[in-house]
# Entry
Amino acid sequence: MTPRAFLFLAIFWAASSDAAESPADRTPFGFRPEDGTKQLQREAAYESLLDAKNLELWMRQMTTRPHHAGSPKAKENAEFIAGLFRSWGYETELEIYHVLIPRPKTRELQLLRPYPVTLPLTEQIIGSDAVAEALRAEALPPYNAYSGDGEVVGPLVYANRGLSDDYEVLERFGIDVKGKIVITRYGGSWRGIKPKVAHEKGAIGCIIFNDPGDDGYTQGSAYPDGAFKHDTAVQRGSVLDMPVRAGDPLTPFRGATQDAQRLPRDQADTIMKIPVLPISSVDAEKLLRALDGPVVPDHWKGALPLTYRFGGSGKTVARLKLEFNWGLVPAHNIIARLKGSEYPDEWVLRGNHHDAWVIGARDPMSGLVPLLEQARAFGMLREKTGWYPKRTLLFCVWDAEEPALLGSTEWCEHHAAELREKAVAYVNTDGTSRGFLGVAGSHALETLAAQAAHEVVDPQTGASVSDRLRASWLVNGTEERKKLAKERRDLYLGALGSGSDYTPFLQHLGIASFDVRFTGEAQGGEYHTCFDTFDHFTRFLDPGFDYCLALAKVCGRLTLRLADAEVLPFDFRGASQTYSRYLGEVTKLADDLRKSTEQANQLLEEGLPKLAADPTLPFVPPKPKEPVPFFNFALLQNAAEDLKAAAESYHQALRSVLDGKQAPAKADLLALNRALFHSERALLSEKGLPRRPWFRHQIYAPGFYTGYGVKTLPGVREAIEERKWEEADQEIRHAADALKRYAAEIRKAASLLKKTGKP
Amino acid sequence: MTPRAFLFLAIFWAASSDAAESPADRTPFGFRPEDGTKQLQREAAYESLLDAKNLELWMRQMTTRPHHAGSPKAKENAEFIAGLFRSWGYETELEIYHVLIPRPKTRELQLLRPYPVTLPLTEQIIGSDAVAEALRAEALPPYNAYSGDGEVVGPLVYANRGLSDDYEVLERFGIDVKGKIVITRYGGSWRGIKPKVAHEKGAIGCIIFNDPGDDGYTQGSAYPDGAFKHDTAVQRGSVLDMPVRAGDPLTPFRGATQDAQRLPRDQADTIMKIPVLPISSVDAEKLLRALDGPVVPDHWKGALPLTYRFGGSGKTVARLKLEFNWGLVPAHNIIARLKGSEYPDEWVLRGNHHDAWVIGARDPMSGLVPLLEQARAFGMLREKTGWYPKRTLLFCVWDAEEPALLGSTEWCEHHAAELREKAVAYVNTDGTSRGFLGVAGSHALETLAAQAAHEVVDPQTGASVSDRLRASWLVNGTEERKKLAKERRDLYLGALGSGSDYTPFLQHLGIASFDVRFTGEAQGGEYHTCFDTFDHFTRFLDPGFDYCLALAKVCGRLTLRLADAEVLPFDFRGASQTYSRYLGEVTKLADDLRKSTEQANQLLEEGLPKLAADPTLPFVPPKPKEPVPFFNFALLQNAAEDLKAAAESYHQALRSVLDGKQAPAKADLLALNRALFHSERALLSEKGLPRRPWFRHQIYAPGFYTGYGVKTLPGVREAIEERKWEEADQEIRHAADALKRYAAEIRKAASLLKKTGKP
# Structure
């Protein structure tokens, strides 16, 4: 069936299920068939305007020098970007916030025992061109932002990835990290979790290194021969306690304007308490070779050619000294507006950051240049065809994302009231590369994402990016993904944790959000190192900018549909299904934990762990664990049923007006759409999550102990995982209340729809 | 309940279930309570005679020089061992066979392209003591016995472990090994499978190396600092096609006596067709660094500090030249007899080999010296207490096990008729070390093993070795082992594949067998290298010979019970249960394969594998596979039910005579016991397994493509695995027939028992 044939179907608005059940149904959800056809034509026109040469030009221009937040080049880039937007007809302003970003003054790491070694702690810059010269002159040295200041001396302990489970292993071997310095591998969690857990366990310092097994020679040739990590390369990055709160640590819950009220630094609870330093594999090897003690378990072993041991005995002692300059830094956000022709107070936001840790070709430029090209093409569309979006479009280019999502968070906090009222949705991007579509976000927008992904052609295969993603799930996916992919042809939306600028929108303000990227076929070791350069990106990650263009296509279609749909494309049946799946997961989590706890306690009671242990190695049996009670999941189960009914009722209402030929009154649509985009706010709780009130979303949060990785139904899931039984029941109530509020909003939309649908 | 209390239980013979259900029931299965108590006392007396000093003395003495089969030291050791047996009162003879064992004359391996490298192919001998000097002077250099002669030049391809699945991966990348030399890692199968599969796939040569990820620095400190593999160390070993037939390749099915009829060498079908050479990790690194092409999948990656690539493009070319001296060598078996006082024509055999690849402290001396100490203690027992075994005991010390189980196989083939008639059971050992009991064998003897293991105390924990093994299963086992260990307190007997001298007994002649060792807490990299020395063993593997002594205890009890039980301790309920479990596995295998085949074919039909593949890498989709039909498992299911009923009937008969107080007539016992130990013969089929008639056992065989690893119900299982549908149905019939014959033998024993049990 061609799109034209659809015109003759007497459908008022395309209903999602039809779209979802058959990719052949292309009428964009939320549009009347005739408007849908025009919309598809406009999107095709949009795609035809995109030009890879612009992406290449801009990336090259903005990556000639390091452009971390506060650097001259970051300011220069911000002004360059603002100039571009203005040239394309956007009402553009630079919004500046004054944020705390520490810069290293002293970085010293030595082995004192069993023999003295002073580590160089530097990345080898390759080449002698202008970029290499700028790197030598201006790059921030490897460090972790918001590490504690200080000098510590202590025995060195290897703690694998530095996660809670790893400390369980150390305890079994009788190794206590109190008063010691832990050395951990990157990976397995967001980096900030490693010093956070180390500090909780009593360690006095934390070293993080890149093991070549993760992104070095084990994975492929190292740069400059290949994309993988040079042995001197170091991943920089923030260790602010962002799972507690993103943004400036001195201005919680408010924008870091010039005159904002600021906490004294020693009261800033998200700053790491102990010194933390990232080092290269070549430096780490020197430390690890000096460790003694038992050999670590297999899953702790990296790929350095040595025997990984626990250390911790005191025979290996290290000294770590770090001092930072704790001054405020100006962060330059660029906000570019194209005012909506019909609903100027409904804002569709599209964002990407511009600051980098060093040169940042991939992170963030590979996401930013598609955003710029999207904005340019929208400008051309307006110029050429007279098109104006019905809703106001905001292109937001954030500064200081890297240290703590500062630009986006301060702006969200500063404009919270207006955003809560007006923000329809936020579409985020960040670094991207060659491969498969990765799209995560609010599940009420799953149908929108699924339909848009069906329209965009994969540059390498000619299939839709959606079909290609599904193929990879069916062929190479986990068992769970295979099962999901078999159940329907359309894509499944991932859930958002953290790691980029959507966090303040979604999880603090309850604005439905997307994060979009391509990934999976162009891995590398450049992340947050000196080697994330134009040369690296264009040789290894997306030569020809094909996937950068595909990203512009996906995001362009998402933005255009959100901007112009008569009825906003919220489809609550997808959300209802997905949230029920999450509920199934947490009930299973509780059941599995109950069973495994029983079994472990039984083994302990019989003394079997001790009997099974090698007596020549230290072994401390674990303590018996408190049994897992049964929880009142019925509250959530009832709420989920209520949501399902509400979602169905909304969908029926949508169907019941299929015969209506007349366009509804604008006032009715205003009320309906407002109810729709405000629905996501209902999923927030005012109190927020336990111990982190800034995070309010009851469905999506970064894990308290994963950092970036999402925890869905986070209050409930984490209470169970952390064995806080009373809190689990309390969080079940909070989540159930949120689902009930959400269902109520949906019912409100359904009743407005019924009213609207009447001729 | 103390053992004494048992005396008052009116049980004629201890019935296995009681023993199996409670380890507190110590009365040895097959004994009357009063005899059982005496038996336990005799076993205690036996254990008290064991002295670790002897083990140390003999191991030191027999490991001063290399003692591979045919070497002067092997002959010297054989004569020394024979002398010991004679001194302890055994009727002892040296039985010599003349077997084909190739010795290397030329070993050359070079990289020709992209740059010339000639590999040294030598192990670095450490130290300057007499042993080191002897190693330098007399050790066989690293080689694979029964490699083909020849010189080959060709592109080098890395093929991971060299198994069928690995070639599937190569095919997906469009890499053909025809006319090329493959380089494979040790591990994942018996080594001989690697050149066998390489040859089947068209390769012209095969190199096998030790990756440090398997037994080198990744696992622990390398020798001499620790137990793990020195980077120059090379695992020697046979590549004769032993899954087809063990023993001298020139004298199939008959003993290689001086005047035996011999095949010409070019008709010996088990000799490898292509040259094969084992090399060290330090040599392998030079070859692997030269390979180009795509990076291999994660599970192909070893621990060398380089990027593992497929190669195969022709840019990397190697030359391998091997020449061997193909002369016959005398193999000196030692057979020492203690004639049975009541049943001289019922033979209980206990064996271990004496030849090594080099010095062989662990392999085989750590198994041999406990056997010698067992024999010495039996001699003392006889001298001190006048005890004589009721049945004839044969201590067999084999030569030339390493090249092809030559000593044991030729002896079994030579004495096949007598053994079929008289052999009750064979108890084998080989290398051992510190850790957990590993006991595998014929499942009719599971109760015997379980009871004996309950009596032997673990040297490190004071628990029984059985309880300790169960603890390790429950705490660290796979899910399947955990499940089994929960189901009962007694140990489960493993199934025998191959890799030591039990193979001709069990799988060729149908003599119920055991293989016993301790393992799991003292790993090392010494296997078949120059580093398997007294120093290595006593520093790292079993300091103090504690586990060698425990091995002597377990094997002593097994042998004593087999020798003296009034009714031989065959318990068919365990066999019936276990064989039913195997049947469940093969039916599941067929179902799983049917499902996965359907799914894979469906994906192919939709073109999804190609769509999911990275277009910048070569990718050849697999061909659709023939669907898996349904098989007539009913035949086997009915036979298994029949066996279950027979086993139950035998057990009931045993119970029905519990009240009998009178000892049965000797003639009745003769007939009964003969039926019992002949039962295992019923599990053979005269035709043997497909393509390997020498292997006749229908329940246990080494895998045709695993080499040592067992395949239970091998005809059926391998037919399904190899997608030979007609053969699967045929093998189901053969296996069902074997189970029916077995059930008939058991019914015969039951009827004799009923007769016997009558006063």
